[in-house]
Amino acid sequence: MSSSRLPVLPLHHPLILLPTARLTIPISRALADNLLAILDDSDAGQPVLATIPIPAPVDVNSPHAVSLEVPTAANGLPIHGTAARVVRLVRPRTLASPGSPRQPYLLSLHGLARIRLTQPLELDPATFDSLPEHTVTYPAVDLTPSRETVEAFKDAALRLLDRLAKDSVPTQRKDDWLKVASMVEDISDQRAAWMADVLVAAITGQYADKLAFLAATDVEDRLRRATELFIKQTSISEVSKKIASAVDESLSRQQKEYFLRQQLAAIQRELHSLHNTAPGLPGGGSELDDDEQADADDLADLRKSIEALDAGSEERKVGVREWRRLKRIPQGSVENGVIRSYLEWLTSIPWPSASSSQATGQDAIKDPGFLAKARAQLDSDHYGLDQIKRRLIEYLAVVRLRAMADAASAAQTPSSLNDRPQQQNLIKASQEWSGANHALVPLSAENAVLRPSSAPLEPTKAPSPPKKKGVKGPILLFVGPPGTGKTSLGQSIAKALDRPFQRISLGGVRDEAEIRGHRRTYVASGPGMIVQALRKAGRADPVILLDEIDKVGHSNFHGDPAAALLEVLDPEQNHSFNDHYINVPIDLSQVLFICTSNTLETISAPLLDRCEVVELSGYTYDEKMHIARRFLLPKQIQVNGLSESQLTLTDDALLHIATLYTREAGVRSLERAIGAVVRFKAVEWAEHLDGVVGEENDQKEWRGIVEEHELEKILGVPRWDGEEREREEKRGVVYGLVVTGMGEGGILPVESTAVPGIGRLKLTGSLGDVIKESGEIALSWVKTHAFDLGITAGRGIDPLKVPDSIDIHLHLPAGAQKKDGPSAGIAMTCAFVSLLSGATVPKDIAMTGEITLRGRVTPVGGIRMKVLGAHRAQIRKVILPWANRKDVEHDVAPEIRREMQFFFVRTIDEALEAAFGQGTLGWRREAVLLESRL
Ligand SMILES: Nc1ncnc2c1ncn2[C@@H]1O[C@H](COP(=O)(O)OP(=O)(O)OP(=O)(O)O)[C@@H](O)[C@H]1O
Questions:
Q1: Over 60: is that where the pLDDT of 59 sits?
Q2: Which fold has domain 621-715?
Q3: Residue located nearest, by CA, to atom 2 of ligand 1
Q4: Residue 444 has what pLDDT?
Q5: Given CA atoms 830, 834, 835, 836 in this order, what sign does their dihedral have?
Q6: φ, ψ for residue 218 (rounded to 5)?
Q7: Measuring from atom 31 of ligand 1, which residue has the nearest CA?
Q8: Are 820 and 771 in contact (CB under 8 A)?
Q9: Are residues 81 and 51 in contact, defined by beta-carbon separation less than 8 angstroms?
Q10: In the UniProt entry, which residues are flagged as the active site (predicted)?
Q11: Does ipTM surpass 0.90 in this model?
């Protein structure tokens, strides 16, 4: 190992000079002077220096700290370096590289060989520029490395060079790398270490790696380190290439989209200006043209609405988050549209906390004359319905009490007892309105509830601690046939409360998402009906009418809409209703829900359980006349552009329309028919004004009154005319009473006939199991009592076998409609008796009642509707079960009761007596007595 004394030049981090490499560094004047002195002293021309790389002090706390694996002297400074020849020392004066004032000289060095200091280097700032001389040793001449090491080195070097060639953009550099690669391929094993020096010096690598490489005096070690460095460098450049191309791709797509949009806008602007300046075309643009401006305005509005949401609220947080997302996504993209429409929905919901407009509704409710005004409102919108109006006033009184109690607890008044006298006054007021026998239970303001009138009264409780705000009484459910005013009662309640009214039609809703909305992941998703109604209402406390809840679909693979409704209607849950689209809990506790339905049968039990049922069963002709005269006719006259002084309908004409053209429980068809008459007259009036000449060549006459005989000309042939005449008193035919699925009462013929057969009973007319069983019971009863009724000559004889063998066919017309229930029992019994005995039932008698095998008649439902239906059908005698007597007394209007005759029967015997008339049937009396003794 040879040694020599060389002036030492420390190279501070990150400078490093490897053998074979060249390095140019700026140096100070003092150093340059020292160098010049050495230059002058040296007789061999270019002097040689020992360059020692000095690493920066390592911050051990830094997460990026790299430990240096190089041998150092006792003072921690490296002892390895490179002997370098001074190639050039200049003081540049060109403008391009003026040099820094502190280091005005440039020193170029050429690395020659590795060296090692024999003594540690002193890094005294005073000696920085002094180039102190040190003894250095040169490591032993390199041995030839092993084959495998060289192969691995070449392999890694070639891969790196290939990568570098691929990545270099100017073709010149690419060619240079390829040339080096071919040199590497051809290099001999002895020269591999030299090649390693050349390559490591040429590539960019980490300082620590290069330092370790410089300190590797053993050739095997040096090559291994070079191989590792190349592999590391190759993978770094591969990964960065990948990242760069990914970034590039997305950037270029965005740029492309941006440029295309700009171009499109420019083209549109050009076309627009061309269009506007084209000769003959009207100038000035349409409001549809200025898309960009409108768009910017919309965005600004959206931003304002998000800012207007309550600070700290959930909706605001979501709004802000989505707004930030919106800003990141390019305009015009699908995602952008989705987020925008979501934000529009989110901000358009009247969030309870943000709504200051609620005061309006509260004002109306706080008004001491609220109940009187509500009553006046109901009266001015609806005729009759006294009982129902009473119930509604009770309901409104409770709503008011609750609202006031909520307000009081919100204001943190120390004791709700202070309000008690006032509340009791209120209850008293509502009692005055709702009559003596209503069932408003005067509990404390917080827990006052409306009880069905049959429910027992609860004792007055002491005021309980204030409950959660927004907990409400039961939901009102109006049940009744179409057109009986369910929807319009809901509207009146909204008017009385001075709240917006929204109607949600649930008929045919099969999908839970229609109520709750679709999740945002669905294409074209949107919020459900409840949120839509809230947005339309524009306030957090509207009256929402859920129309036709009996027609809501039940659980299926689209979810369970009825279950979603339950959540909406349940006061315990609806303060945080979750719409799938909005996905922020919405407080529905201030919304007043009212439901309507035609029948109670198809409503799910839990839903029904949350509702307070209010039945509207239909109107009598008398009531219809009043409704038509006071409400429907004036409304139609106004809608059709006439005035009440111009047109009137006589009472007879109105009655004629109600009885012969419409026969329904409600008044909707009546309103439609009146509308048709008014429209007809409106045309006549218009023609009269225009001076149109009639068929007889004279100007059309105008008569402002419509009489009964004119109706056929206007409305066509009456629909129900002659039905009574068509009804016949015939053997085997009787009339039963029914209630349709729409909740409407009416009569239904029960027809029976005998056909040759073997004593069987055939039942037709879309009958359900229960009604079929009723038929069997009726026939069995008749067979058992055939002798007593004088049908057979002796006991034990089957009237279907003797004298002739027959089958009985019983049919209930309107075969397409499903019929079920036990209430046709007595009608079928009478039909069989009539068929077998030959006696007939008069055609003005109709009947309903369930029978038992022992001949008892048991009560049935829907009495009021059935009686009204019978009355409309001109039936004047009705046979009903004895147990239904109270229903007639309570529910049927006195004027109807006066016009009709009711037979209340306990047994089939009594029913037959009432139907056929006394003495018509050939009773064997002893048998009857025997029966009654049993
Ligand atoms: N008692 C009444 N007084 C005045 N108008 C009435 C009365 N009952 C019903 N009407 C009128 O009859 C029309 C139909 O009523 P509405 O739409 O409320 O019926 P509905 O019971 O809701 O029917 P549906 O079950 O088909 O929804 C309305 O124009 C309503 O104003």
A1: no
A2: Helicase, Ruva Protein; domain 3 (1.10.8)
A3: 382
A4: 35
A5: positive
A6: -75, 130
A7: 488
A8: yes
A9: yes
A10: 823, 866
A11: yes
Catalytic residue among 823, 834, 837, 843: 823
CATH topology of domain 359-615: Rossmann fold (3.40.50)
716: annotated binding-site residue? no
Q: What are the residue ranges of helices labelled H in 349-485? A: 359-366, 370-381, 386-410, 420-434
> Which amino acid belongs to residue 108?
S
Confirm whether 454 is a catalytic residue: no
Residue 363 Cα to ligand 1 midpoint, Å, equals 29
The verdict on whether residue 484 carries a ligand-binding annotation is yes
What residue owns the CA closest to ligand 1's atom 10?
485
Distance of alpha carbon 229 from alpha carbon 215, whole angstroms: 14
Render pLDDT for 453-494 as a digit per residue (tens, 0 to 9): 333 333 333 344 344 444 456 788 998 888 888 998 999 989
| Nearest one of 153, 148, 104, 163 to 129, comparing CA atoms | 104
* Ligand 1 lining (C-beta closer than 6 Å): 382-385, 482-488, 547, 596, 598, 627, 631, 666-668, 671
Atom of ligand 1 nearest to the CA of 623: 1
Residue with tokens 């043209």: 289
Segment (H or E) for 335:
helix 334-348
**Mean predicted confidence (pLDDT) in 489-504:** 90
Residue 763: its H or E element: strand 761-764
Q: Which of ligand 1's atoms lies nearest the C-alpha of 484?
A: 21
Per-domain residue ranges of the chain: 3-137, 147-244, 293-348, 359-615, 621-715, 724-933
- Ligand 1 atom at minimal distance to the Cα of residue 385: 1
Cα 592 to ligand 1 centroid, rounded to whole Å: 20
Q: Report the separation in Å between the CA atom of 453 and the middle of ligand 1, taken as the mean of its atom positions.
A: 25
On the question of a common fold for 621-715 and 724-933, the answer reads: no
CATH class for domain 724-933?
A: alpha beta
Measured between alpha carbons, how far is 423 from 926 in angstroms, rounded to an integer? 68
Least confident of 456-460, 543-547, 872-876: 456-460
| Cα Rg, the chain, nearest whole Å | 51
Q: Classify domain 3-137 by CATH architecture.
A: Roll (2.30)
Tokens 């990545």: give the residue.
Answer: 167
Active site residue 866: yes
482 is in an annotated binding site: yes
Separation CA 501–CA 537 (nearest Å): 7
Average pLDDT on 688-694 reads 71
Average pLDDT over residues 231-235: 89
527 is in an annotated binding site: no
Ligand 1 centroid to residue 530 C-alpha, Å: 23
What type of residue sits at position 185? Answer: E
For residue 744, what are the β-bridge partners? none
Q: CA dihedral defined by 382, 383, 386, 387, rounded to 10 degrees?
A: -60
360-404 residue pLDDT tens: 556 677 777 888 888 998 898 888 888 888 888 888 888 888 777
- Predicted local distance difference test score (pLDDT) of residue 773: 93
**116-155 residue pLDDT tens:** 888 887 776 656 677 888 888 888 766 788 888 899 999 9
770 vs 779: CA distance, rounded Å:
14
pLDDT confidence band for 755 (50 / 70 / 90): very high
With cut-offs at 50, 70 and 90, classify the pLDDT of residue 18: very high
Most informative mutation of 550, 662, 667 for ligand 1 (most atoms within 8 A of CB): 667
What is the 545 CA–ligand 1 centroid distance (Å)?
A: 14
Question: Any binding-site annotation on 480?
Answer: yes
Q: What is the DSSP string of 159-224?
A: HHHHHHHHH--SHHHHHHHHHHHHHHHH--STTHHHHHHHHHHHS---HHHHHHHHH--SHHHHHH
pLDDT, mean over the chain: 80
| Residue 136 Cα to ligand 1 middle (Å) | 113
> Which residue's CA is the nearest one to ligand 1's atom 14?
483
553 is in an annotated binding site: no
Q: Dihedral sign for Cα 349, 353, 355, 358, please.
A: positive
- Quote the CA–CA distance of 200 and 160 in Å, as a whole number: 11
